Amino acid sequence: MHIKMLAKIIPLIAALGLLPTVLAYPAQVSPGLATVSNGAALKWYSTNFDKGGPAPEKAASFYNCHGTELSDFPSFEEWISFDDMWKINEPILEAVNPEYLDLIPTIREKIELVSADSQVDARLILAVIMEESTGNLNVPCTQGSMTNCGLMQAAGGSVSFNPKDPENSIEQMIRDGVQGVGAAPGLAGYLNGVSWINNGQFGNPYLAAHIYNAGCASGGDNLAVVEGSGPKSKVYASDISSRLTGWNGERAGCLASAQCPGQLRQASDC
How confident is the model at residue 176 (pLDDT cuts 50, 70, 90)? Predict the structure, then answer.
């Protein structure tokens, strides 16, 4: 689960009285209002939902073995269109939300809304949603030193689905993951860059995804590293890149990833 390493070091930093200067939001940025301002990151943003690279013929068995260095990951032009990506993932969204089929279009609507507000590409938002929760509105919170809730399993303070207020809660779950909560930034913040990580590649969506999951980037440009107790951090960026180029998250693609150079994962992990 994302920011596990961050969750472990927060108590230590707080005990030293350093938390406000090390991990706090900049004064001008509030959770839920973060917008991408990094010029490098804005090159990975588009509002053209029908433009993109070719989608794979078999989304279930497809896996993109690019990586593990940042320079090896797919280019922005290789991302399939948001329309194609939605078509690939819509059956999964319907399968995991049988009692809320009428809300599936709302998920798309809110992704597009938060994307426009934050300048984070809608495809990256959808990829993280599917990776974190498969789009299950009723996904449980992950309990640990920090509680991660919602469609994007965002940091502590994130909300869960409220069936009594479905549209607003769907929007808030997405905002939590994209624009951040009090405990940590979201994707927009990680695209802009954070003070506790020294990396000259801020603005790269694969690095942002890795930090979203792990809370750190100890490998520099190499994203195929295990961060702390979170083994999924080794494959997270590669999974996201594969979703952005057409994988639907099914087991066949996971098994294909076990054949990628660099031993991203074992077949037994699928």
Answer: very high
Is 32 in contact with 171 (CB distance < 8 Å)?
A: no
DSSP string over the chain = -TTHHHHHHHHHHHHTT-HHHHTSPPTT--TTT-----HHHHTT----TT--BPPPS-TTT------SBGGGSPPGGGSBPHHHHHHHHHHHHHHH-GGGGGGHHHHHHHHHHHHHHHT--HHHHHHHHHHHHTT-TTPPPBPSSS-BBTTTTBSTT-----TTSHHHHHHHHHHHHHH-BTTB--HHHHHH--TT---TTTT-HHHHHHHHHHS--TTTTB----BTTBTTHHHHHHHHHHHHTT----HHHHHHHTTSTT----GGG-
pLDDT one-digit tens code per residue, 196-231:
887 778 999 999 999 999 988 888 889 988 887 677
Neighbour tally for 5: CB within 10 Å? 20
Cα–Cα distance measured from residue 102 to residue 96, given in angstroms and rounded to the nearest whole number:
13
Task: Report the distance separating Cα 253 and Cα 123, nearest Å.
Answer: 19
Tell me the domain boundaries of the chain: 34-45+58-269
Domain 34-45+58-269: which CATH number of 2.40.30, 1.10.530, 1.10.860, 1.25.40: 1.10.530
Question: Do 194 and 22 meet the contact criterion of CB atoms below 8 Å apart?
Answer: no
Q: Tell me: the pLDDT tens digits for 53-102?
A: 999 999 999 998 887 899 999 999 999 999 999 999 999 999 999 999 99
